[in-house]
Design a protein that fits this description.
The structure is a homodimer. The two termini of chain A are 45 Å apart. In chain A, the strands form 4 sheets. Chain A has a 7-stranded parallel beta sheet. The first copy, chain A, has a 4-stranded parallel beta sheet with strand order 5-4-3-6, with helices on both faces. A 3-stranded antiparallel beta sheet of chain A has the order 1-2-16, with no helix packed on it. The first copy, chain A, has 2 domains: 233 residues, 3-Layer(aba) Sandwich (Aldehyde Dehydrogenase, Chain A, domain 1), CATH 3.40.605; 146 residues, Aldehyde Dehydrogenase, Chain A, domain 2 (3-Layer(aba) Sandwich). The first copy, chain A, is built from 15 helices and 16 strands. Chain A is of the alpha/beta class. Chains A and B meet through helix 10, helix 14, strand 13 and strand 16 of A and helix 10, helix 14, strand 13, strand 15 and strand 16 of B. Strand 13 of chain A pairs parallel with strand 16 of chain B, so a sheet runs across the interface.
């Protein structure tokens, strides 16, 4: 294995043993110490970040969006510090005994929530992830190995150095937050294959990063972020609410994974709904790609092709399809959806129950915007991304998703007959 | 993708949509129908199994142990039928709303337990797994794709045919329980890489099967069965209980994953404990491999080499090490253990607490035999194996481990500000 990866995995395992035994108070003290250190050393961080920005200028990657993701200024540093204090204020999931029962032979068997152990995070050139994700894993009692994009290396180095210094000052192991400094692809692949050293790998970034991790990883992975989300307007939906929810889900922040991508409309409500909602959307800059029935009710749009049903635009584009009934809507969603967030707007009790039960997604809504699928809107606090797989955790990943359960068994000398 | 794998994955996905909506009563009726069908058609099953046994005779694999795993006789068929009725009697985990809360904006957000979807199981030449594992996945509302060892193909074909017929007779989709009949390695590898088609892959079998699955799979996997288990005898352990537990954990069924492999003994109790326990074990046919201190107290044993600490014997062999204190015992366990089942025998309140909290394993015991780590002994009913990974589920996998949680959100028109 890559020597840096192996070395940092081993040290992280050792640090994880210490972290899992820390009290909530000790972890919160560490988060506060790191927050203070970021504030106090903001100039050093900005300095390091400038080196990254200068190298970016000289490279092919340079674009306004890329530059914006990479940029750390005073405001953003203060935001990271605030984020750490928010994490400190969240309830500590570790130590909860979720249930306990007595067996006929007198054994008391229970399950206690414990940290996962060593978690690696592979992400792109957003240095704030080092602090946000690092803070969350730390609060859940885990050691973390960070592997950020090469463009952010100087920023990440500066940040992780401050984190490690803060931990050492509190006599905690600095190895609990490690950065893989070799930004070569080989180091990342070795991290993906560090089965036995890592307990979990979380990719945070675009589809190409996530599929590379799934293809290469032998370590358990949590898949995040793909969101081809639908809203289905049922035959008896309240038109005003349906318009408000559709517009909100599409326009309020089109670049995020819980934004609306395909609108499905029951044929009985289409004549009343489409001529009202489409001009509003178009006026707000949304391009409409509709099925033939959609054009029938509102001709001034582009035709939808088959691939539109499977596209996550992350942009001001909306696919629209008129459907015959609830079944067709549900089948469409289960076929083309990515299992993220799906909504029905209806006044039918029966339809709401059928939709809730048959739609297979992390979050299923009745009469609300899919934009609510995230940790803070759900009341879980900060989050690590939205899981779109079914194993371990589904939907917004808060602190609890960074823990696991251990069986604890108390006996008085029981043996198996 | 391999055409048979692709076809069966697609059909299973469709069947999963039906299965997830079945009531508990419908699922139990199906399990009872299958049990009856096995009993009624036992001669057909035995006939098919004979073909497998005859082919085995002609092959290189033929050994008594292999033959025994492959064999289906009337008793074993009755046992499979009884197993299905036991599964029917278990509580259905699907549909439980595990929690629900109201947000300040009036949204009601909850989590409901739902089937995982399509689960594949790759196993060796034990045809009873087709029924045991198939029954469990069915009860949890999942479709299942079975891929058994080539040596059991005729038996598996006969069993799955009866299952599918039973389902069709109840107007349920036969595709809910599918068998991959191509026993070539390519078909298995394509199944491991059917990411997007499968929600979960569970390997059931020896270490080489499990490591092949981990190396090749892009589908989320649950790793099962590796058990290098320890029992630590603390300085003030009750000697009689310590002997009874040690003997039980090592001898009662040495070939299973929760059996004892390394005994750790505090130096202060070693002079009283080792000369008593070792002759008992040796008399029962156990080979002892001990550290130098162990030989000091009981010379008539073999010396332990370094590799003994990491070996899962699954046999009547026991490694024994004298340790200076609790810390050394815990460090040894966390270093060499496979995270399965670990026990301390002690009368120290403090040591019991430290051991419980610091030992990193699926099940941690005080004063009891590690042999209890399984679904029935824990009171979970039938099980799918013992997970030794930390993601999703840890320890005995009952029905709940074959489900996931879906967020359900009830609104009255809420949009995101």
């Amino acid at each position: 294995m890559h020597p840096e990866v192996l070395d940092k995995c081993r040290r992280a395992r050792k640090a994880a043993g210490v972290l899992s035994g820390l009290s909530t108070r000790q972890k919160n003290k560490a988060l506060e110490k790191i927050a203070l250190s970021l504030e106090k050393n903001k100039n050093d961080i900005i300095e390091a970040n400038k080196m990254d920005l200068e190298q970016l200028e000289k490279s092919d990657h340079s674009s306004d969006a890329f530059r914006d993701r990479l940029l750390l200024n005073e405001d953003r540093i203060m935001e990271m510090a605030r984020g750490l204090r928010d994490i400190a204020s969240l309830e500590d999931p570790v130590g909860e005994v979720t249930r306990m029962w007595k067996r006929p032979n007198g054994l008391d068997i229970g399950q206690v929530r414990v940290p996962i152990g060593v978690i690696a995070i592979i992400y792109e050139a957003r240095p704030n992830v080092s602090i946000d994700a690092g803070g969350l894993t730390l609060k859940a009692g885990n050691a973390v190995i960070l592997r950020g994009g090469s463009e952010a290396l100087n920023s990440n180095r500066a940040l992780v150095k401050l984190v490690q210094k803060s931990l050492s000052d509190l006599e905690l192991p600095g190895d609990a937050v490690a950065l893989i400094e070799d930004t070569d692809r080989n180091a990342a692949v070795d991290l993906m294959q560090a089965s036995g050293y890592l307990d979990l790998l979380i990719p945070r970034g675009g589809p190409s990063l996530i599929s590379a991790v799934i293809a290469n990883s032998t370590v358990p992975v949590i898949q995040t972020g793909a969101g081809n989300c639908h809203t289905y307007i049922d035959y008896n939906a309240d038109i005003d609410k349906a318009i408000a929810i559709t517009v909100n889900a599409k326009v309020q922040r089109p670049g995020v994974c819980n934004a609306l991508e395909t609108l499905l409309v029951h044929k009985d409500v289409a004549p009343r709904f489409l001529p009202k909602v489409l001009p509003v959307l178009i006026k707000m800059g949304v391009e409409i790609r509709g099925c033939p029935e959609t054009s029938f009710y509102y001709p001034d749009i582009n035709p939808a092709a088959d691939e539109d049903w499977e596209t996550e635009y992350l942009d001001l584009i909306l696919a629209v399809k008129v459907v015959d009934n609830l079944d067709e809507a549900i089948d469409h969603i289960n076929r083309y959806g990515t299992g993220h967030s799906e909504a029905i707007i209806t006044d039918s009790y029966e339809h709401s129950r059928i939709f809730m039960s048959r739609v297979d997604a992390a979050a299923v809504y009745v009469n609300a915007s899919t934009r609510f699928t995230d940790g803070s809107a759900f009341g879980l606090g900060a989050e690590m991304g939205i899981s779109t797989q079914k194993l371990h955790t589904r939907g917004p990943m808060g602190l609890e998703a960074l823990t696991t359960l251990k069986y604890i068994v108390y006996g008085t000398g029981q043996i198996r007959e």
